[in-house]
Amino acid sequence: MSQMNVEQFASELGVLPTVLLEQLQAAGVRKHMTEDSLTEKDKTQLLEYLRKIHGAKEEKGRISLPRRQTSEIKKADSTGKPRSIQVEVRKKRVFVKGDLTVERKTAETPAPLAPSAPPVRTPVIDAAQQALRQEEARRQAELIARQAAELREKRLREKPPVVEIKEPEEPATPPAPVAAPVAAPEAVPVAPETLSAAPAETVAPVEAEAAPSQPASTEGTLHKPAVKPEEKVDKKKKPAKQVVWKEEKVEKRGLKTRGDLTGAKGGWRVRKDKHGRTEEPTPHAFSAPTEPVVHEVLVPETISVGALAQKMSIKAAEVIKALMKMGNMVTINQMLDQETAMIVVEELGHVAKYAAIDSPESFLADTEIAPSELKMEARAPVVTVMGHVDHGKTSLLDYIRRTRVASGEAGGITQHIGAYHVETERGMVTFLDTPGHEAFTAMRARGAKVTDLVILVVAADDGVMPQTVEAIHHAKAGKVPIVVAMTKIDKPEANPERIRQELVTQEVVPEDWGGETMFVEVSAKTGQGIDDLLESVLLQAEVLELKAPKDAPAKGIVIESRLDKGRGPVATILVQSGTLKRGDILLAGAAYGRVRAMLDESGKQVEQAGPSIPVEIQGLSEVPVAGESVVALTDERKAREIALFRQGKFRDVKLAKQQAAKLENVFEQRGEVKVLSLIIKADVQGSYEALAHALQQLSTDEVKVNIIHSGVGAITESDINLALASKAVVIGFNSRADAVARKLINSAGVDVRYYSIIYEAVDEIKAALSGMMAPERKENITGLLEIREVFRISKVGAVAGCLVQEGLVRRGSLVRVIRNGQVIHTGELDSLKRFKDDVKEVRAGFECGLSLKNFNDIQVGDQLETYEIQVIARTL
């Protein structure tokens, strides 16, 4: 093999040439320059040196078997709730081979004092075997050199503190230099008798043996050769001090085996198993974290104070303290809403994230059939009629349905969502008639959510009104196409061109003007343009290509719901996909049940309803919230579980919101905010939602409407008792009190008001709130007087002779005494006289005498300013 220099060999090993030079010199190879050539003997000597270093670091013949055990214990947390804790016990068993190292035997035998070691005989081998051994030695040298370089870098990075360990002094004997063998040394078997000796390793580094030219230190002992200062640092990096004791000293020292090779700690003997093998102790030490631990806290919609503290691994008192600083007085079991809990988590230095609750509702997603597996069929369009109040929406549908619905609504205005499906010559169309009054914004938004098309009704004699603009916004927000129906076109004052111009300003451009919106002139009285309107609707529906699966579990939405006295909870449902059959198990929000009966809009019994068909069902457990999604399930137990979960979640959210409002109520009471408490009962849910929304908008900074209870159905005895306890006014909207409640009303004198039109209810509550508001006080200055003379009269006091300069002075007026431009007294006139006669008033330019009530410190030159306070009633 060709020779190479130090630099080439270093590049081949992947280490720095200077590092390799240091290793060569430590191994006894005299190389000083990177250009010096290396022989195979030099490489073998380096390999032997590196092997000794490597062998000193790792003990051969040791096998470690880690073992992990997991158990679970039950323990109560700070809130008293049972909590399961996972405990993991890690054990490591070490098996030591039955042969020891050569150094141990040589450590027990004193080294000879001869200056030179006897020559080592080289075994007689042939040239081929010699070449193979040299090649193997070279490869091993490369590997070990690379490991040595990494070890050196690691030592330089760590640099632990140097701790001196004093040992018993013995006569120092310098170790004899050992010549490096040419070939790799073979393993030397060790007698098994040596296993009874104390386990130890020599602490002398191999560098001392590899460099015999270095003088030995006088501090060396027979069993512990001298160590260089830099080698002491390396010795401290070892995990445990390794010392070889004489047998007689072991007997004397007894249990003093702390820190030896066996790993005994605290002065105790090492534990052994039944086979005599050493067992290493399981580490149980806990080191406190040096930095604060930041937890990622998943916050659900509602969470108790104790549960939130447990998620952050802190005491509940810390969370309560943080909430008190924020102004919330809470207890450990109190529910917090999601927003408040996330603020507390961030305040305490942790990261808050919205939690995805592992709820039973995931069952709905699992049972949902993929759309690709369903057969899609064409369905009828769902058309919502929108527009301003009294613009003729219901009358237009009347003509289409050939019925009279508007006359049945109170006041002639629609206060419920009417859902009808109409069979025409061109196909079936489902119509939703929404109210036009501003209070029914939520109902209109609900209609726009489920609709495919919007017919925007605008009266040709009235024009675009606020609710018309709002309906346009709802349609655009839902990305629903609009068809404009200009009604009342038969009236002489109708002006369709003005309607077009006003709608263009709202970005509704007719097709005649280059837009995309179809405009149709209709009359619900004469029937003009009705066929054109239906044709436009069906044409727009064909463009949309409306499809839905028919042979699938039904899905839909609650259009309206109410509590019927004879039938129980009743809900109007619009089926959006699938087929709803009588007997199906329905889940509608927090309500569930089996469909006992299905009626169409005319009150006829039906057995099933397909897509785009509105039906009225009964059989639910409670009145569902209008706008909730409806799904048909096959498992009644699962439907009940999901409904109960939703009820609990709704209850927790409601309690958390009420708690968040308590602090606000405290501040309102401090500011003397007057509250009008109301209990609202209505015939259908959409009506009480609209009425509650309209009444709550009347609240101001001084007066507030507080709806403590609202519901669907008749006014019951419990409603009257609640009104008695909370001093509330009961409002019945298309709802009456039952017989028991009427007796209680008469005996207790509860204020109960009945309404059938929303205008009247809003106006009366507005008047009541206006009467509760503090009146406005306005000050009017009536006169200005100057004191010309002051008379002191016994039993009367000081009387001022004055000249009225401006206005007039009335008896009993409020007065201010002004001296040198400053008000020194504010009071009331006690008497007013002119020429010894009592008078009611004195006008400007006349003199008078007067006295002030409870004030006599008047002087000549003072000015008196009379004024009166005018009380003005305020309105909303």
UniProtKB/TrEMBL annotation:
Region (G-domain): 381-529
Binding residues for GTP: 387-394, 433-437, 487-490
Keyword Glycosyltransferase recorded: no
Keywords: Cytoplasm, GTP-binding, Initiation factor, Nucleotide-binding, Protein biosynthesis
UniProt-listed SUPFAM superfamilies: Initiation factor IF2/eIF5b, domain 3, P-loop containing nucleoside triphosphate hydrolases, Putative DNA-binding domain, Translation proteins
GO molecular function, one term: translation initiation factor activity
InterPro entries assigned: DNA-bd_dom_put_sf, EF-G-like_DII, EFTu-like_2, IF2_assoc_dom_bac, IF2_II, IF2_N, P-loop_NTPase, Small_GTP-bd
Family classification: Belongs to the TRAFAC class translation factor GTPase superfamily. Classic translation factor GTPase family. IF-2 subfamily.
Name recorded for this polypeptide: Translation initiation factor IF-2
Organism: Nitrosospira multiformis
